[in-house]
Design goal:
This protein is mostly helical. About 65% of the residues lie in helices and about 0% in strands. The longest helix is centred in the first third of the chain and has 26 residues.
């Protein structure tokens, strides 16, 4: 008797997308493993298949998973270029399903992205993804897809003028939050920001996304209305920033600056001498008043203030150098955050101090002509420092 071979038949028209299976496919999990996972999860009625341990019903589920995997493989080239997916006539896919296919395909994994932030999106980096896969416990092909998505967006838009965010949303039809993530990933990689040093290991992908977003909105050429790509920092702004050195170069300005900040901080963080003062002490002697002023300065130790001032001024005045700009995050940690952590200040106190630092600096005549430049720098720098500051986090000094 002649044996008739098994034949798999795949018919496509109005397609059905099982997004639970799509989720597994995106993570490169094999069809047989997915079938076992669906059975063991106790889910029921997937595509009208009652799931239990019956071999026949399990084989039906396995065929369904294979059917979905074939579908995903065939539409993948179109999903990679969403504008093509929206205009193709091969598959009848609703607009809502198209959006879900694209957003899920381009979704970024924070652990994998954290390992490639700031690195050149090149073949060499892709070859090293086996180390990323081992470190993040993700499958290598999953890491490859994450990297390839970033590189595809970068290569497609690297010469496009104007807003990188708008270009990503226009070309890849991604939701705004996801488009922002890719905008920052491309920005940090294009300018080769150092994100992987040991001292930065405590920072999350979210921390870098927020800081990068601030830089793009305030420091890039596109932020000034220029037609230059958003992956370029505003050179005129960076050159003007060099003049803020006056804050650390003049000792009198530095000491006056500390006094102004201390006076304001004393209103929120009164010194011990103020807290214990009685009403009849309002007529205290001149010597007592001098001592009171000195005690207010103790709110901000002179050594701390000098370190923070030198740190901020050095970062600002050297941003025009490409290498110094690339080291922005490590410089912030070493020159600003570590000195502040040594005083065990809370995040709110650090934010209050830095806000006062920025505003009181403009009371000096030498800084008033740099008002707009200083505000652009300090707004971004302060919010980045506060985002990166963890009072209970011990930063590795090695």
């Amino acid at each position: 008797m002649e044996i008739i071979p098994d034949v798999d038949v795949f018919v496509g028209n109005n397609i059905h997308v099982d997004f639970e299976i799509y989720h597994y496919w995106l993570r490169n999990i094999g069809a047989d493993e997915v079938t076992d996972l669906l059975v063991s999860s106790g889910a029921s009625n997937i595509s009208h298949i009652e799931i239990n341990n019956d071999d026949f019903e399990k084989s039906l589920l396995y065929s369904h998973v294979l059917d979905q995997y074939r579908l995903f493989s065939m539409v993948e080239p179109m999903v990679q270029v969403p504008t093509v997916l929206c205009t193709q006539l091969t598959y009848q896919i609703s607009h809502k399903i198209q959006e879900s296919l694209v957003s899920n395909y381009y979704e970024l994994d924070d652990q994998v992205v954290r390992e490639i932030l700031g690195k050149k999106l090149s073949k060499g980096t892709r070859r090293d993804l086996d180390e990323v896969a081992a470190k993040t416990h993700k499958r290598l092909r999953f890491c490859h897809r994450q990297f390839d998505n970033c590189k595809r967006i970068f290569k497609t838009l690297e010469d496009w003028p104007g807003s990188l965010l708008d270009n990503i949303q226009t070309k890849f039809l991604l939701p705004q939050e996801l488009a922002w993530k890719y905008t920052v990933v491309v920005f940090l990689s294009s300018l080769r920001f150092e994100c992987c040093k040991r001292k930065l290991a405590y920072l999350t992908t979210s921390d870098f996304i927020e800081c990068g977003k601030l830089m793009i909105q305030n420091w890039t050429a596109a932020a000034t209305g220029s037609e230059n790509p958003e992956t370029e920092l505003d050179r005129d702004f960076l050159n003007e920033l060099r003049s803020v050195r006056v804050l650390s170069a003049d000792q009198k300005i530095c000491e006056k600056h500390r006094h102004l900040i201390s006076q304001e901080m004393e209103k929120t963080y009164p010194t011990l001498s103020q807290a214990s003062r009685t009403p009849d002490q309002s007529s205290q002697s001149r010597l007592s008043r001098v001592r009171s002023r000195d005690s207010s300065k103790d709110l901000i130790p002179e050594a701390l203030f000098l370190k923070v001032t030198r740190g901020l001024v050095t970062i600002a005045s050297n941003l025009y150098r490409t290498k110094e700009a690339q080291d922005f995050f490590i410089d912030v940690v070493e020159k600003v955050i570590e000195p502040l952590q040594s005083c065990s200040w809370s995040k709110s106190k650090v934010e209050h101090f830095l806000d006062l630092y920025s505003s009181t600096a403009l009371q000096f005549t030498q800084m008033q002509q740099l008002s707009e430049v200083w505000k652009k720098f300090s707004t971004t720098a302060i919010q980045s420092i506060v985002k990166m500051y963890y009072p209970s986090k011990s930063v590795d000094n090695s």
